[in-house]
Amino acid sequence: MSGPKTHSWIEDLNVYAAGKAKAKGDIKPVKLSANESAIGSSPMAVEAYKQAVTKLHRYPDPVYTELRIALAEKYGIEGGRIFCGVGSDDLLKVACRAYLSPGDEAIYVDHSFLMYPIAIKSVGGVPVMVDDEDYTTNVDNIISAVTDKTRIIFVANPNNPTGTYIANSEIERLWKNIPDHILLILDSAYAEFVSHDDYEAGIELVEKSNNVMMTRTFSKLYGLASLRLGWGYACKEIADTMDKTRDPFNVPSSSQAAAVAALKDVEFEKRALAFNEKWLSWLTDEVSALGLRVIASTTNFIMIKFEDEQKSAIDANEFLLSRGYILRYFKNMDLDDFLRLTVGTKDENKAVVELLKEFLGK
Ligand SMILES: Cc1ncc(COP(=O)(O)O)c(C=O)c1O
């Protein structure tokens, strides 16, 4: 029996490999593998989510009226050019559906977000991966890879899993050196964590362009990963195209309500940022003091390099798992010497450093 046959590009597709959520045996796991919020979610968002329970029989607002208003107010942007997705992952896929035909090329940088090749291949596009430089996006390498088949360029800024960022001047230089039929997607999932003056999440460039899309998420700083809510901003034509391509009722009412409340919870936002700043820097210092290389990060996670073959990343990973600590080990990304560690609670951060000490015999 042959049965239905899918496209060749779907057959070739690998399912997104999420970080582990289980440790070894029956140990209660401490999950530091998915860059989730260390301090949970905004209490106001949780309350709004609970309230939404009374309207489960209603379809959600298909155009996210309140959420667009809240985002437009917060960022001083145009509500009519905001679009939402089931996580920002979804927006990457919707953009590929809208702008890539089979055989078209889309460029992304090595050691960046695993979803790009998946989103590109899911519509028969051709992923073109270019080299980064010392784990940082290299704009010249992207420009050199542009061909007449290129339709999309993805740049995660800051980047996951490396945690590095590039200055706005570099993003502008990239934009000025590509033709305007190419869609430049600035994936700014970790934008809220960046405090460098030379960084810009993408709003400024969107305002003056007709080929730039910025994507953002409520999964990281706002601690709403389970609600799967991402948003994007672009010129009107691109925003309308995204709205036509996405599913009609794609964001549940509960997610919309929680997101609106989260945007208003300034106290939580401040607390989350201050917490992350303190512990990101503490972890960077403590792990570096153990003789491990830590890539400078502007996010809520660090990449740790294990350069001693006798004390490898894979062995460290096994050791940590045996103690219940789940970090992220990347199998097929030429990052075998690394573990990615998400900033956790105070106790988790302290415990993970102690465990690393024990593993290294220090
Ligand atoms: C760079 C980057 N972009 C996008 C996402 C997707 O986030 P979400 O789909 O939860 O909005 C992630 C999640 O880890 C990420 O690291």
Protein model, in words:
It is a single chain. The protein has helices at residues 8-11, 43-51, 65-75, 87-99, 115-121, 139-145, 168-176, 203-207, 236-245, 253-264, 266-289, 313-322, 346-360; strands at 30-31, 82-86, 105-109, 126-130, 150-156, 183-187, 212-217, 229-233, 293-295, 301-305, 325-326, 338-342. It is α/β, with parallel strands linked by helices. It has two domains: 19-40 and 267-360, Alpha-Beta Complex (Aspartate Aminotransferase, domain 1); 43-264, Aspartate Aminotransferase, domain 2, CATH 3.40.640. The strands form three sheets. It has a seven-stranded mixed sheet with strand order 2-8-7-6-5-3-4, sandwiched between helices. It has a three-stranded antiparallel sheet with strand order 9-10-12. Strand 6, helix 8 and strand 7 form a beta-alpha-beta unit. Helix 3 runs parallel beside helix 10 (253-264), helix 6 (139-145) runs parallel beside helix 7 (168-176) and helix 11 (266-289) packs parallel to helix 13. The longest helix has 24 residues, at 266-289. The termini are far apart. It binds pyridoxal-5'-phosphate. Pyridoxal-5'-phosphate binds next to helix 4.
